[in-house]
DNA-binding transcriptional LysR family regulator
Amino acid sequence: MELKDLRIFVTLAYEENTTKTAEVLNYVQSNITARIKKLEEEFQTPLFYRHSKGMTLTPKGRQLLDYAEQIFYLIDETRHALMDDELPFGHLRIGTNETTASSKLPQLLASYSKKYPDVELSLRVERTAFLLEDLFNYQLDGAFMVGPIEHPDLVSTPVFTEKLVLFSSEPIQVHDVRDKTLLTRPNDLYRERLESWLEDEGIYPKRIMEFNTMESILNCVNAGLGFSIAPISLVDSHKFDRPVSIYGIPESHANVQMIFVHRKEQHLDSALQKFVTLTKRELD
């Protein structure tokens, strides 16, 4: 098996089309087909299902993709470890949740890109469970998450503390919750904090409406549909059409520690080191 064949396989796994793969890699299409056939003969198993819309991975193909991504990650790690210097370069893949991406990261990413222009930054916005999966699958170099995260294979660095608040387009106090609609997301960590506090108070919202994104919730609060809970930094940074009423909740439920997480065995090249240093300086 040659690395060139493995690179063709990975590209085809994502493109799911030999024509597009040939364009991406600047190969002729027949070469793509021949290389994939060679891999399948070598492993003695089909790696792709062929159908009218293109090609999709078989279970064995997905297994090979996992290994291939780790192989190319380790090649990059080796290159960085041997060639790394004080001037960062290469590709840095960062993950985060939606609220941090909206309120805290724009200025940080802009500062980093201006300071280290040879680093290609990419940002993935997802829930914590998916970010952890991407870390373990070598698809992210690091991620911002709500702490604590305790895992023997991960290193967590506290970076800043968020303060959660209730917010509504109408005046709101804790007892008003009984007559209002809570706008939230499924499996949301902030919602868990809110429900824990309201349970202590013996108070429950009139109804609950779930949305897929925080942006939808902010817009619906702005329209007067109900109230929600979010970090004060996000509420302050959003442009509402009308004044928004903010209610602070007890510190035991309000304070959220944000951490930056990376794999323990990972070589911290200068690109990631500089990112962590800048993060602690600008967000702390």
